Amino acid sequence: MTETASSPARGTRTKGTKAGKGLRIERVHTTPGVHPYDEVVWERRDVVMTNWRDGSVNFEQRGVEFPDFWTVNAVNIVTSKYFRGAVGTPQRETGLKQLIDRIVKTYRKAGEDFGYFASPADAEIFEHELAYALLHQIFSFNSPVWFNVGTPQPQQVSACFILSVDDSMESILDWYKEEGMIFKGGSGAGLNLSRIRSSKELLSSGGNASGPVSFMRGADASAGTIKSGGATRRAAKMVILDVDHPDIEDFIKTKVTEEEKIRALRDAGFDMDLGGDDITSVQYQNANNSVRVNDAFMKAVEEGGKFGLRARMTGEVIEEVDAKSLFRKMAEAAWACADPGIQYDDTINHWHTCPESGRINGSNPCSEYMHLDNTSCNLASLNLMKFLKDDGLGNQSFEAERFAKVVELVITAMDISICFADFPTQKIGENTRAFRQLGIGYANLGALLMATGHAYDSDGGRALAGAITSLMTGTSYRRSAELAAVVGAYDGYALNATAHKRVMLQHADANTKAVRMDDLDTPVWAAATEAWQDVIRLGEKNGFRNSQASVIAPTGTIGLAMSCDTTGLEPDLALVKFKKLVGGGSMQIVNGTVPQALRRLGYQEEQIEAIVAHIAEHGNVVDAPGLKPEHYEVFDCAMGDRSISAMGHVRMMAAIQPWISGALSKTVNMPESATVEEVEEIYFEAWKLGVKALAIYRDNCKVGQPLSAKKKEQEKAEVTEKAEETIRAAVEKVVEYRPVRKRLPKGRPGITTSFTVGGAEGYMTANSYPDDGLGEVFLKMSKQGSTLAGMMDAFSIAVSVGLQYGVPLETYVSKFTNMRFEPAGMTDDPDVRMAQSIVDYIFRRLALDFLPFETRSALGIHSAEERQRHLETGSYESPEEEVDVESLAQSAPLHRETPAAASPAQAPAPAPQQAHTSAELVEMQLGISADAPLCFSCGTKMQRAGSCYICEGCGSTSGCS
Predict the structure, then answer these.
(1) Does residue 757 contact residue 841 with C-beta atoms inside 8 Å?
(2) pLDDT of 87 over the 50 cut
(3) Averaged pLDDT for residues 452-476
(4) Average pLDDT over the chain, rounded to whole?
(5) DSSP element (H, E) containing 379
(6) Is the domain 160-355 a CATH 3.30.70.20 member?
(7) Spatial CA neighbour of 902 closest among 817, 782, 803
(8) How crowded is the C-beta side of 466, counted as CA atoms within 13 Å?
(9) Of 140, 131, 84, whose CA–CA distance to 555 is shortest?
(10) Which of 955, 957, 961, 960 is nearest to 81 (CA)?
(11) Which amino acids are annotated catalytic?
């Protein structure tokens, strides 16, 4: 029997009710008698977040307590987004312990109250394991859990909602109200409008109906006014229309027409930027639009046939259209403005576990949650990089057993949350408790694939992704069957048992047929096979606690809170990252997965250093010294010259869809040069490959983007330049600034080094200022002929003069290391075993002798002792010379004098002052525009996360949680 609830609806199952003896919880990470908090080092941090546009402080809380291994960005986001209580009051949370305790203690108590655990000891293990996993960023619940659980306010745990609307004014007005309440709470909702009769049908009174497109206008205005959670970002919503609805063409062109309006108004001088004063006059901008197509339509497209549009009231065909022509209009609209997306109805419902309770008609805003109308789904995502075992020598494995145990823990916690959760409407509360939909997923897939030496668009990469996904969902349903034995199957299971078991067999069959590729994915497939066998066996015996188990969500804010390099199933944005430092300042770093990938591919440390230095300077691997061209694809990213193809994204979606209960939040990015025909191919191939839903985005297809903001900046710069010219013309006296040469004293300390490079012998004398670094270099080549000796003399004089005029040594090092010419090869220096030229050797030696550890480490230059230490401990630093990031931040002005392009980095190098996030850094380094909006909170460039955007600076999202 379905549980009843009032609104807001709370779980009402009788306290302690259970069908079995309770779960035995196994320790995975924790130690008996030791709390997870006692095993880490805690420190106090000051969180001060500013708006980069005007310098104003957006958020400030000082003295917050976090583990020392948490990154600055993760601390900032968790503190500003998830801590509860007014800042500056005693009620305000001041550390991660309070936040985690607020959640895990609530979950433990609910688990005990509702009979989940076999004993108090098992409940304690559950609490400690859950705390450990959150503390160490192994997984994260979706944002509403962090916001609401354990607080006096309604304990909403779901981020995804599906509503419904019928063909009546009462239902339509209820839709507006319910959607508004969800937006007010900071979440998003989606629904299918296809029940509303078309504008080509008559009302009972005799007049023509308005049609769903007209009612979309009212809902869009409501969403734009309420926004999301009272924030300045737009609300997250999805509207869907079936392809056989008579108003489908009007629906398809809604956003195209508005985009033309935006262009006309912009050209007339109106402010049509995203967030501009005049953009609010444009309609249909607050929702993602998707067309729900069926197999009959897609086959008609394939065969070039006709397709019937059906009346909503009678189901009769009232108009026939050319299927190819309609499909073409969809592709043209998506090419022009990125909407509509596409959802494949028959594929979706083929994997539906509860068809006897109703069809799957809708989805949440990002299209990953698909289930019954008037339901919700709470999400959690695992950080895949936490399960990669890497010895630093290229030997890697994915810890399938530990991964499965964490999945069991998380699924148990997620199901417990439904027992005490509140919901925005009574209908959603009743249906969610009756069907208990869960959405476990993961983040950092792109980083994992690169770290393991797999190209994102490769058979090996897809095999590993598929194996992990199969293991995750198989383990989830196995735990769901075990929970059913303890606390009962979901209320709707009895009616849907046959269909549910059929879908489990479909998952298991797909697992059996999957291709095994290498030593990484094969053991994971084996563990997944065992899990699915248990699912079939236990499901037959116990039924299932949950009608749905998994989705792949965007993991926007929570991905940043877990310090993930990549969100959801997305590839890496770029190879160079932007990193904030404790105490202020920032750095650019080469993605830490790059060295892991190179070791996996068999490269030696000297080669890795050279390749990483090349990436830091150029932002890509093309022509990197020693890197084989066949390995370039491993380092392909979402942006740049070697960006992953659109079909590569689709193939990855198809590789994991068979083991996801719901769907995948993914936008397939296409270059600006992409054609309408290519959009058609993407939509058609995705259907053929069994993908449930996707959307495309062609670069620069939107007008309301920061590109127009840049245009305004250019116009402002032009005005400023004209003013400066006028001033210059009026000023007769020109003030000239010259650098001043600082000569060395007569007595100076120095080092003389003998060296051999490729058989060529030489001597280098490097003299220093008594207290201020290198000041001159003399080079003497032994028996190498007058020309080379003369050129090296001249070169050393030029370098010495430059040093005395203030050119930083690291600038010379960054410019001349990796320069290739003969003589080159082996050296007699144990710290620099290989040199690509004499110049390459000289500046590597100078860096080792005169640059501090953190600076030369940033340039990818390490001594033999440091490289050995890295192999043994994973760190180049000795215990007594651990890098003090606060000191490093204070020394940033020295580095910032160095041009950004002249700062190769393996670990950190100073980031350009103009960049505030990785997206902006990519723009500067690759010379391209990341076609994404600016963050309303802090003014920085956002980056795509699934179907939405996430601000790396402050964690704000454009609609996803």
Answers:
(1) yes
(2) yes
(3) 98
(4) 84
(5) strand 375-383
(6) no
(7) 817
(8) 30
(9) 140
(10) 955
(11) 364, 366, 368
